[in-house]
Amino acid sequence: MPTDLTHRRVLSIALPIVLSNATVPILGAVDTGVIGQLGEAAPIGAVGIGAIVLTGLYWIFGFLRMGTTGLAAQALGRKDDREVSALLVRALLFAALAGGAIIVFQGLLFAAAFLIAPASDEVEALARDYLSIRVWSAPAAIAIYGLTGWLIAQERTRAVLVLQVAMNGLNILLDLIFVLGLGFSVGGVAAATVVAEWSGVLLGLWFARKAFLVGRWAEPAVLFDRLKLRNMWRVNGDILIRSVLLQGIFISFLFLASDLGDVTLAANQVLLQFLYITSYGLDGFAFAAETLVGQALGRMDRLRLRRAAMLCALWSGVTALVLAMGFGFFGEQIIAIMTTAETVRDAAGSYLPWMVAAPIIGFAAWILDGIFIGATRTRDMRNMMLVSAAVYAVSAAVLVPWFGNTGLWAALLISFVIRALTLGSRYPALEAEVELN
What's the burial of 108, exposed, middle or buried (CB within 10 Å: 0-12/13-18/19+)? Predict the structure, then answer.
């Protein structure tokens, strides 16, 4: 049994990620709060729409974080320092190309976005001003995915925490200076984000500076190795399909809720925040699994892989239990903070038991995602998500007409269970492929 895989090591990877995740909603709240001080509705709506458009666009490239973590962790486990460095550079090159394409085609992309989600003339004009500025950090925003994944693979999650805190802290400071101090309005919020994201890339490169000191990583034969590039595209392509399916489940969830009335839709939007909190809490242990399982697979050590999976699953389960208890004891107060509308509070409160159950029912799906990302068994992730999405669709079609919103929540949680069961069924095959050292 590997003695260096300890509870303390798992926590040292996971806890900085949990703290890092906590900074994300704070930045969004400050962006809204600062622009709200101008006393006009249109700028608030413009910043909200602009942020959603770019966040959704960048989200497409989130696979770069997960794929880089799994591949780099395995290379680290093999002690292939040259490939570890090459993976980082490939991720950065991809970010530059993808970000550059977004800048070049911004007109078409933003026009399509406003066709899908039209706004008033005033809000759309302000949102376009916001987007025309913030789009210039597209390469940086995507590069941060790759840098973060690479640092996580090396268990350097404290660096990830510092990176997020520094970047978001600078963004908040510049929000205050540009908007409240200099009166730049919507453009000030966008400019603050551009400066913060490019600064984040520079800080991330500083944290990763040793990667560029490894010999021969820049040789074209190494950097553009056909087999390595093909494997990178395979892994990232599978993750992209899996993520689109998962996002499709949540988008359809909101669409179906909208057919149940405005109050139910608002209540579900409030309750989804509980799932986001759950995600923030459980992501740390999923990331730890990505790192430790990837390293174990790189070493082809079955016992190490099993212990990494068990330790991360244990702590994920403990965290899920704590979250469930917290939601049970303080859920009504959390709902009251999120909305002052009594009808929405009452509706959300009636479905609160689903939120208490969600972390316990869903933690296995979260941790198995981490295990399979670390092992780069992304085809299994893609296929099992297809099954999960299909079962969700059938469940929603059957349960919603009969049970309304209760049936909708049941369908969502059933998809978590199916994802866990199907991925869990593939775990023995994963272990069987690894030699017993």
Answer: exposed
State the Cα–Cα distance between residues 165 and 406, nearest whole angstrom.
39
Angstrom distance (rounded) from CA 325 to CA 358: 11
User: Measuring CA to CA, which residue among 375, 389, 381 is closest to residue 424?
Assistant: 381
Mind spelling out the 3-state secondary structure of 6-55? Answer: CHHHHHHHHHHHHHHHHHHHHHHHHHHHHHHCCCCHHHHHHHHHHHHHHH
Q: Identify which of 116, 4, 121 has the alpha carbon closest to the alpha carbon of residue 57.
A: 116
The Cα–Cα gap between 65 and 59 comes to 10
211 in Cβ contact with 84 (< 8 Å)? yes
C-alpha to C-alpha distance for 392 and 344, rounded to whole angstroms = 26
pLDDT mean over 163-183: 87
pLDDT tens for residues 126-165? Answer: 778 888 899 999 999 999 999 999 999 999 999 999 999 9
- pLDDT tens across 399-417, in order? 999 999 999 999 999 999 9
pLDDT at 437 over 60: no
Q: How far apart are CA 27 and CA 169, in angstroms?
A: 8
pLDDT at 392: 96
Task: Give the residue carrying structure tokens 């790192």.
Answer: 291
Report the distance separating Cα 346 and Cα 352, nearest Å: 10
CB–CB of 208/217 below 8 Å?
A: no
Please report, as a single letter, which amino acid is at residue 386: L
Q: Using CA atoms, how far apart are residues 380 and 202, in angstroms rounded to an integer? A: 35
Q: Please choose, from the candidates 189, 237, 177, 351, the residue with its C-alpha nearest in 3D space to the C-alpha of residue 229.
A: 237
Degrees to nearest 5, angle at CA 69 with 317 and 374: 50
User: Which amino acid is present at 265?
Assistant: L
pLDDT mean across residues, the chain: 87
Angle between helices 342-350 and 302-338 (to 10 degrees): 150
- Residue 173 exposed, middle or buried by CB count within 10 Å (0-12, 13-18, 19+): middle
pTM over 0.90: no
Please report the pLDDT score of residue 345 as a whole number.
84
CA distance linking residue 296 with residue 278, whole number of Å: 27
**Farthest-apart Cα atoms in the chain, separation:** 65
pLDDT at 212: 84
Q: Which candidate, 289, 283, 255, places its Cα nearest to that of 269?
A: 255
